[in-house]
Amino acid sequence: MTVEIRHTWPSADIAARIARAVAVDNPEYVEIRAQGAELIVRVRSSSAASARASVDDLLACLHAAEETVAMAKR
Q1: Confidence at residue 26, expressed as pLDDT on a 0 to 100 scale
Q2: What is the pTM of this model?
Q3: pLDDT tens sequence across 7-32
Q4: Best CATH choice for the domain 2-73 from the list 3.30.310.50, 3.40.640.10, 3.40.50.20, 3.40.50.1820
Q5: Which residues are 33's β-sheet partners?
Q6: CA separation for the pair 4, 25 (Å, rounded)
Q7: Would you say 40 and 18 are in contact if contact means Cβ atoms under 8 Å apart?
Q8: Distance between CA atoms of residues 3 and 10, nearest Å
């Protein structure tokens, strides 16, 4: 099973910084990269439950990043 998340940030610099900030310790099943202003996250898993757990963790990190970017804009 592969899950892909795409999110466009305000700039390529921010997307690259977010990619580095949420990089994971297990790169064999999670790929995070910035492509211009778009952040692309791919999670590969052998089960739906494992994919969900990984995606939940990553979404929590991305939410925190969104909040930080929004605060920095103020």
Answers
A1: 62
A2: 0.83
A3: 999 999 999 989 988 887 667 889 99
A4: 3.30.310.50
A5: 40
A6: 18
A7: no
A8: 23
